[in-house]
Structure formats: structure tokens, C-alpha cells
Amino acid sequence: MTKKIELTIDKKVFVAELNDSATAKNIFRALPIQAIGSTWGDEIYFGIPAELELENPKEVVEEGDLAYWPPGKAFCIFYGLTPASTDNEIRPASAVNVIGKMKGDISSLKGKSGSVRVVIQSLQSE
């Protein structure tokens, strides 16, 4: 069963759903998470208190995907092209575990740069 979460990114609120992967379940148990994220192209990423392995790794993701990047122990929010992208493919720095998807309009994230305040919390119980 998918889990609904709320992401507040620089005071804008978004809803997302986590998938049923083991990685997503581990991250859900770590909520709430507050962090100062960095941007890398149209990606926001930040370290989280989870040390997880690759699980069904993806080299290319879709706009709105949420992922965990094992080398950086980082939560990633993809909303467009990154410096590693080729053509119109959204590419992480290296393989990630896709853990969920943003819902609704995320176009307001385009153009963010520098530091970004992020709060992630559950919208339901485990």
C-alpha cells in the first residue's frame, strides 16, 4: 500500500506518494525529516538519517520522482534535467532507488537554486 507524504519546500506544500519498496518503507519510518537541501540542476537533494543499499537501481528517472541516492545517503526530488542529463532524459549523478512520486503541479520548483529548506512528514500512520 502506498504511503502519502507532505513535502514543504521553501514554504510551498506538495503531496507525494511513496511506493512499496523496502527503501521507501525505511524512509517513511524515519519521518519527519527536516533538512537544508542543495540543488543540482532541477534536482533538490539532502542527506537523511538512513544508510540503505541499491534496490532496483535506476539510471534515468522521471519528472516528479522521489529517490534515495545511496552514495550520499540522500533524499532526491527530481523536477527536471540535471547536469548529467542527456537530451531530455533526467539522469541522477549515479543510480538511485526510486521511492515515490510527487502529485499535482510541481512547476513552481523550476529554477530553484542554492539552498532550499525542506520538511517531509507523513500524512498517514504506518
Explain how this protein is built.
- The chain is mainly beta.
- It has one domain (3-122): Beta Barrel (Cyclophilin), CATH 2.40.100.
- 6% of the residues lie in helices and 40% in strands.
- It has one helix spanning 22-29; strands at residues 3-9, 12-18, 33-39, 43-47, 65-69, 74-78, 97-103, 115-122.
- It has an eight-stranded antiparallel β-barrel with strand order 1-2-7-5-6-4-3-8.
- The longest helix has 8 residues, at 22-29.
- 33% of the residues are buried.
Radius of gyration: 13 Å
Q: What is the total domain count? A: 1
The helical percent reads under 10%
Order of helices and strands: EEHEEEEEE
- The CATH topology, please? Cyclophilin
What class do helices, strands and sheet pairing give?
mainly beta
Oligomeric state of the chains in view? single chain
Which range does the strand content fall in?
Answer: 35-45%
Give the averaged pLDDT, no decimals: 95
User: Could you give the distance between the termini?
Assistant: 10 Å
Q: What is the annotated CATH architecture?
A: Beta Barrel
Main sheet, how many strands, which sense, barrel? 8 strands, antiparallel, barrel
Count of DSSP H/I helices? 1
Broad CATH class: Mainly Beta
Which geometry do the CA atoms define? globular
Number-wise, the strands total 8
Low-pLDDT runs of 5+ residues are none
Strand order of the largest sheet: 1-2-7-5-6-4-3-8
